[in-house]
Design a protein that fits this description.
Helix content: 25-40%
Radius of gyration: 14 Å
Distance between the termini: 17 Å
Strand order of the largest sheet: 2-1-5-4-3
Number of domains: 1
Strand content: 15-25%
Shape: globular
CATH superfamily: GAF domain
Number of helices: 4
Order of helices and strands: HEEHEHEEH
CATH architecture: 2-Layer Sandwich
CATH class: Alpha Beta
CATH topology: Beta-Lactamase
């Protein structure tokens, strides 16, 4: 799972998708996160999310392990996340929706996600829109 984009500077080509996702879903944060074998790197962030987080505790890591979209309507009501330090402390995540990003060779190299501090629903149309944005981000990763 390697992409030469890990540890590279922010780029407008990714920022436009995180901004579009944040605006569309009206959430506090949107992220393009990339991974290598050991760490999670935030390639694009819109909102109050810190860059340096251990990969193991992130919702993005759970999305990658899940190998498909991960929707958490209310993290405090979800047994997988209710005691997670990102839920019980800053940034106090309650809602998360993430879609895996595939890189060259079909490997999962990251996620596009939206995050909020309040619980919320996520419709099939929301899923289609997030998937569409994720495919556009993949096009950028693979170009």
């Amino acid at each position: 799972m390697h992409t030469n984009l890990v540890d590279s500077p922010f780029e407008e080509r990714f920022d436009r998708y995180t901004q579009q996702a944040r605006d569309h879903f009206n959430v506090s944060s949107s992220i393009v996160a990339l991974v290598d074998d050991h760490k999670l790197f935030l390639k694009s962030v819109v909102g109050p999310i810190e860059q340096n987080m251990p990969r193991e505790i992130t919702f993005c890591n759970a999305t990658i392990r899940n190998a498909g979209p991960l929707i958490v309507a209310d993290a405090l009501e979800d047994d997988r996340f209710r005691t997670n330090p990102l839920v019980t402390g800053e940034p106090f995540i309650r809602f998360y929706a993430g879609y895996p990003l595939r890189g060259p060779g079909g490997w999962t190299v990251g996620t596009l996600c939206v995050i909020d501090q309040k619980p919320r629903g996520f419709s099939p149309q929301d899923g289609r829109f997030l998937r569409k944005l994720a495919r556009l981000v993949e096009d950028e990763i693979n170009s």
